Every structure is written in C-alpha cells, then in structure tokens.
Amino acid sequence: MTDFTMKKGHDGVAIITWDVKGKSMNVMNNQGFLDMGNLVENALSDNSVKGIIITSGKKDSFAGGMDLNVIAKMRQTAGDSPAQSLFDGIMKMHRVLRMIERAGMDENNNGGKPIAAALPGTAVGIGLEIALGCHRIFAADNPKAKIGLPEINVGIFPGMGGTVRLSRKLGAMAAAPFLLEGKLSDPRKARAAGLIDEVVPPDQLIEKAREWVLGNPSIVKPWDEKGYKMPGGAPYDPTGFMTFTGASAMVNGKTKGAFPAAKALLSAVYEAAMVPFETALAIEARWFVNILMNPSSSAMIRSLFINKQALGKGAKRPEMPDQSVKKVGVLGAGMMGAGIALVSALAGMKVVLIDRDGESVDKGKSYSEKYMDDGIRLGKATDESKRKVMELIVATPDYGKLKGCDFIIEAVFEDTQVKAEATRKALKIVDEDCIFATNTSTLPITGLAKNTENPENFIGVHFFSPVEKMMLVEIVKGKKTGNRAVAKALDYARQIRKTPIIVNDARFFYTNRCIVPYINEGLRMVSEGVTPALIDNAAKQMGFPVGPLQLIDETSIDLGAKVARATKAAMGDEYSGGVADEVLFWMEAKGRIGRKAKAGFFDYSENGKRLNHWHGLAERYPLAKEQPDLLTVQHRLMFIQALEAINALEQGVLEDIREGDVGAVFAWGFAPWSGGPFSWIDIIGAKYAVQRCQFLSQKYGHRFSAPDLLKSLAEKNESFYSRFSDEAKAA
Asked: Are 178 and 166 in contact (CB under 8 A)?
C-alpha cells in the first residue's frame, strides 16, 4: 500500500496527499519518495492538470522527516560498493525533487505547472526539503507546529537539497541557524525568517493553495534565473567570503572539530555556492555520503534517536497496568527537590513539596514561580499556564499533607540518617502501596530500603541538575525492588518527558561510576605535571561539553572531597583514591573549592566569569618538561570511562548496552558524536581497543586493563552491538 494518493479535481488541481498508515506523523522511506515522484510525473504529463498541491493526511502535521531507522542502516545495506550505491540513490531522489522544482519547464523556463506545498503543521527534515522544492509554501497557522531542519542534532545534515536550497533562498548567514543549529520555528516565525511563504487559517489551507495554483503564478526559482546572485554574497564575493569565514570559526568554536556532520555541512554549502545548481546538488550528495559512510552518523542516530525513543516508550518496562502518577510528594525543597516539583506540576500532577519550615518550602516553590515568569517573558508561557502550575504545588512543612500521594520522591540532604528520618516520617502518612523513591547519586538503594517495611516498593530515581533541563533519569533497582515500583518510576519518567535508564544497585550506580573516573584521571594528570589546558581541551576536542577539571570546578571541589571521604569510609581497604584524592584535598585545603568560591582549577572574575586555569597549581604540581601527545591524553579520558561502562555491564549493573550509551550521552555528555562508550568501542574496534588498553595499562596502571568481555569481543571479531543488540539476541 502506497503512502501517497492523488485526486485530480475538475478545476485542474491535482492534490497529492501523504499519509503513512499506522503512524501519528508521516516519515519518509525510499519507496515513498519514488511513489511521490511517480504521482507528480503523472500529474505533470496530464494536460487536464493545471497545477499540483502536495499536502498531508495528518490533521496537525506534514512530516517528521526521513525514517531514521532507514538512514541508520543505509551504509550496511548499500551493497559491495556502498559509497557509490548511496550516491546513486541520493541523486535519484534529487531528480524527483528537481522534477517538482522544474515542473515541466523547458530550458528557457517556459511552460511548467505551479506546485504548492500545503503544510497542516510540523514539517521537519525531508518534510521541509520537499516543501522547499515546491514553488510556494503554505502553512496552517498552528502555533504548536515546528518547521525546520534538525538533522544536525542526530549527526547528519539535510541531504535532500536542504543545504543548497535554503542557503540560496536566504543566504548563507540567514540560513546558518537553521542548518548548523537545527533551529525549529513555529509557522509565523518561519515565515518571518523566509523559510515559508504564507501562513493561513487551518480551515483555509487547501483553498488558499488552490487559489494560488490557479492564479497562473510565476514559478521559476531565483537560482534558475539568469544572473542569479546568492543573498549576502557567494564565497568568491568579499561579503560572502567574510560570512563563510565567520561560519567556519563558529562551527569549529562550538564543535572543536569533534562532530563531522557540522564540518561536512559547511563544506557542502561553501562548495555548492560556487557552482551551478545541478552541480551543487551533486556536491551536497557527495558530502552527505561522506557522513553516511562515517560510523559516527549511524551511532548518533542509533543512540540519540532510535534507542532514546525506545527507552522513552518503555522498552524495559515490566508488563503490567498503567502506573501513572496522580499525586506526588517531594521531600526536600532545595534546588533538586524544587526542580522535581516543577517538572511534576508541568506534567499536570498534584505536588506536595515538603521541607523543615515555611521559609524553606516557600523558597522551593518560588523556584517554579521564577521558571514560569521567565517563560512568560520569553513567550513560552502565559499567566494562565503559570496559575495552573502554581495551583498544583502545595508547599508545606506538614508531612500530613502527603496523605493520598501514590508516589513519594525523597530529595533531602545526601546523608543516610537524614534520608532515613524523612523516609520514616513520610511512610507513616501514605498508604501501604505507595511507591517510595529516593533521589541519590551515590548511596546504595538496598541499604536505604531498610528504612521501610516494604522494600519491594522502594526504588532509586537519580535526577540530574538542573532537573528541568536535563533529559535523563537513572532508575535504580535495589535487591528487593519489585516490578510495580519499576513500572511506576518509568511511567513517571514518561509523564515528565524524561528518558529513563534502568540499572541495578551498586555504589555510584552507572552514571557516576563512569563520571568519577573521568574526573580522577584528570586529577592524576595534574599530579603528573600535564598542562591543565591540555587536559581540558583534549576532552573538548573529543566532544565533551567540559573537561574534567572544569567539571569538578562546576560541581564543587569540596563536594568531590566529601564524596571521596564517604566512599573511603564505606569501602575501607577496597577504596583507592590515590593521587587523585591528594590533588582534591590539597585544593580543598587551599580554599579553592570551585566556581562557587570563584577559585578552583580556574581563576574567576568578580562576577563569576571563568578565566584561565590557575597558574598557582604549578607550585605544588610543576609542569612536566615532556608533555604527552594529544591522542594519549584523549584516550586516557575516553578509555577510563568506557572500561568502567564495560565493567558495569559485566557485573550486571547495566542490563542493556542501549541504556549504557544513552545514559552516557545524556547524563554527562560522553562524546555525543560517538553514540556513547559501547558505540565508541565498536567504532574503533575491539581489537584496537585491547591493544590500546595494553599500552595504557603498561604505562599508567592496571585501571586500564582490558576487561574479559572486551577481550572476548576482540578474539571473536565481534562488536557490542553485534553481540548484544535485540537483533543479535533474536538471531
């Protein structure tokens, strides 16, 4: 069954409707593209057809883009000559869009039939690229709709003419936010920016498009006119040259060269701007194939979209009835608790926010008020939406108000005794079947569950700060946690629109057990005399948002020292902080505890702006005369995390490599271009990884020894995803 149908009207207008059955939003596949092209060709060859409208059968959307499952597997399914096969396939699609754009005109731009795009709502990715190939774009006045080209966010770029047409339509500078940042706009803002042509009432969408088609409009695109000049200037023009110079600097400044798609996109725009349109499309296709052939694109799509979406939809949820939360109690009104209260209220839940006194709870509730006020100022919220959110939050020191809560989230101070007291007080009030969650980043869940008589109803829910911005929630099962508690936590994560990963109980769980070694490796390098700037910049050039020294400055050095002491007290002789702790404790003793004190591994201005690395560090840890090479520093930082992730999988803390990859990218920004630690090992290959482990362990210590699982993959020439993916398990 085709996803495209066509109806030819008596007035001479053919309406082609795109409607993928069984999906809430249209997504394109290879066959769909050819089907659309066949219908357009049929209409163009029919003398009774005066013009064409391409629209959607979905009420509130046009298209959500290309099916990313298809894109992720393009390289693997492209045959013995994948690059050539991909290029040929892409050029075939380009010919379809070019057929729409030329619409039967001859080489002198005579003849042709007008083709309009009528967008009922969201049009992103290929959805907008199809529209850009049409002669006029009409969009329904739907404020919830999003229009744009977000491909860069999943490791690719608009490869169906999007870079060529948009840069020629708007100019390179005006197109940059939509191409290089993946900016999405509502229809009115999209029209103001020049992405689309008209915004009309939803019930007049087809009629307005029909009127235009029948009005005998001029349909020649500017770039098909003789003497066309790119807005803002082409690269060989002085103005255009400056634009591309600035864009190149911006891309490298933001990506540090770690994300291949951004560089390829800019290259495609730059090179295509200097040649005729047909050649420009071929150049774009060449660069698009370059990205598709890069394993980074498949890894990013898999982790940032496919796996993330699967986990968000409950891929790991126990089978049982819906456990959606109706009334949630939040214990602790500090920044974390206040953030949890906010996202819960935004999701429409009743919230009881508890703390020790009225002043504390009022301060916690004011966090939500400020958030909503900021939203009103930015046009993202209204007075009415603020009122609804604030009415849902009851802030009180009275634990009795927790009566009727079906879910409790404890977010008090990170201390076992404080948590135990809050837990017991709350459990005296709520019903026996209430699920109790503790928000902790380090304390084992099984031990905390001893404060309840029903450990099967006790679970860990580890949020990341700030709660309203961070997309991940780490759900931690204690040894006795039951399936209903897991389902409840997952359903709550879905309600607040977070991506959940589920892990088993162990100190530091999964995310922090990987983050801590990252920080510690940076501290070890400081003790060895490695230049601090080399340490942090090496991490950034691998795609990390911040280096290990900057990260500990942001999270605070005294907190790191406290966690180190608590871990040592709990683990005894098993704990080995070594030189990393020495650096940490020395900085703490110096009073340089991070950004909050305006003094840490960095110097800070009076208003808290981060300046350069602190030169005083060299007094205690003099710089080594011979500095390590960049790759060695990068591999120390990458492998120390990846090996810990593998250990977590071997030890059963992780049950699914998808959660390991998604958790790493969204919790602490593990080199997003790689798709996560397991995907990164697959990219470099298990055999090479083992070789590097041998080198690093011989030179820097046993912590870099290759785990048995990694050795096994290397010996059998396997990858993590070839062994542990759902497809592999089903085979």
From this structure: yes
